[in-house]
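Page 37, top half.
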Amino acid sequence: MIEFIASLVPANLAAHSPALLVAVPMLMAPLAAFMPNGRLAWLMSIFATGFSLIMAMVLVTQVRSIEGGAIISYAMGGWVPDAGIEFRIDALNSMVLLLVSSIGFLAAIFSWPTVKAEIRDAKRAMFFATYLVCFCGLTGVASTGDAFNLFVFLEISSLATYALVALGASRDRRALPAAGNYLLMGTIGASFFVVGVGFLYAATGTLNMAELAVRLQGVPDNKAVLAGFAFITVGLGIKAAMFPLHQWLPNAYAYSPSFVTMFLAATATKVAIYALVRFLFTVFGLEFAFEGSTLIWILMPMGIAAMIACSFQAVFQTDVRRTLAYSSVAQVGYMLLGISIGTAAGVSAGMFHLVNHALIKGALFMALAGVVLTYQGTSLNDLKGLGRTSPWTMSAFAIAAVSLIGVPLTAGFQSKYALVNALFEHGWWWAVAVVMFSSLLAVVYMGRMLEAIFFRAPSNPNKRRQEAPLLILVPLWILAIANLWVGIQGGFVAGLADDAAAALFIGGAS
């Protein structure tokens, strides 16, 4: 299907797909802001994200068209790297771009009912404009081959995100302090990152990431490089909600507008993890990141701690959004554990889980948005009996819930199985026990929700049957079916993850 859609794109348009994927949402954002009403701005967001999705399909097709994977270098403005800014696409970021643009397109379709209910009419056009700015920033991070340009796009997406979170204040005043905390932590993370990039520039005299990788080989013990490595790891760790740098995330997810929570949960931390992986493997290289600086003693313990501590925190939450927020940090731990193995199989498993977790959390938060819209509640008590009053919405929620747990025939099982295999191959049998224990905790906190939904009587006996609007149900079920499709026939996504890992290990260890 992807190859067929990509084949319909004219060659002269496909040649500029790396730039158009980012530029079209960027250019549409100010136009959306000046729309006379929110509905027109919403339609523009659908068009812009849909166009970016098609361009991402083109890039995936182009990269996979050559055995071993191709690298697409696009010089912005005709300025040859490293004198100019380069967009550099390989199997890793083409996969991330396809994920972000797919989720962004489905999120844009789903957004209108929730935005109409939660955002005042006068602010809706600006809301969708801000969303497009955020989307543009995330795709820019995943596209650029320039370290400072990555910082710029990271800040573009972050500044837009702070505003989107704060707009939840019209529904819950706690969104304002949540946005403030997010702003504070995000600013610290961005500052650490740009300082780290500055150290690398001082040591090498370039900001192009491909050229950085070459020049850093000649200065492995340079103190500026070591400092840059530390600053970049911490900065991106904050952005990725790496334990214990995740304190901004629970409140940001719990009090944001429903649409914002869904989009951020499925994309924001995933793009930050991509950036972290890009620097670890492409810029610094496997030997430096996992031997010279013993990163294995940072990533792996943080991943393990997240899987256990945040899963326990999720068990004791009564608000479903906060439960899923802590669960997200725990799932980031799975990804970091796979990456910390430092093998192609481990990185592939980590990236596979990254994609699957986006499908899972996208569906869960989309279903919760339907609950908020129809029943105005997100506590565990509010879920009671919804299996009877909203069977279609809650059935999709249940599919995503069992996928999060890792039940066979779901996406979550496939990526956890790949992770367990990679751990056994590396001899980390004890880490397999941690994965199993964390999954059992997921059974507890997701099981409580499923029990309330399907086996408890409604807390309000007068609750009438009411499904989420069709604009929510359609993208929700696309994500739910995707969880089943990847669980039963996951070869395509697993292949993307394998290609992504292979792109990082060209010329390196496996």
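Page 37, bottom half:
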Amino acid sequence: MAATKTTGKGVPNLCRGMAVLEYLATHNRSATITELAERLDYPTASVFRITAALEDMGYLSRDPATKAYALTNQFLLLGQPQGRDRGLVEAALPAMRAVRKKTGETTQLCCLVDRDVVILEQLLATHPFKYSVDLGARCPVYSCAPGKAMVAFMPDDAREELIGRLRFKKFTENTITTREAFRRELDEIRACGYAIDRAEGLEGIRCIAAPIRDRHGLPVGSITIAGPSARIREADDTRIGKIVAEACAKAEQNYNA
């Protein structure tokens, strides 16, 4: 039995693609190709092509174990206003400039896209040697400070669902590689309000981040600094953590105004 009321003229594949997205969003769950075909009353071959295309575009992710598809947060990137409306980047830029001025380090704005962190904006360090990445670059949530900061403040059920889908890969000697260790780290982050990347994604690079939340308390982004371990020292973690957390609080005020 069909589970959607999406209709259209002359673009059946578009309508079917929207129906798949609507089903996954409405039911807040993941589903296999077979399940989607049965629920939506579509041919399996059609659902296969549609889900493959949506996965390629980043709107769906597929669990390698269960083969089930789930929505990503790619739609957040589409939601950044391009006109005069206030978006996340615009709301965060003044706070990002303040963080860079106080720390001298590369300051980035990130968001979550499924199990990855995506770089939305970047202000380069004032030092001659500076850390930088391409806008749109991704990294796993468990191996970077902004990812950990955002996941830590997700609702309990959403956080556990995400943790259950993680596939840990060891990038450095400090990378978190188990769900238990990740949960302990998230508990510590919720207690202090900021997250630390202790060269967990790249050797010699440390990051400190805090979440930006919407008016409902849900994380929509994160401001982070990133730079060499020689400059972002463990002894300065608390001081810098407070700077970043205060900046995120100001960005929240702008974003939710």
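Margin note: Residues 56 and 232 are 37 Å apart (CA to CA).
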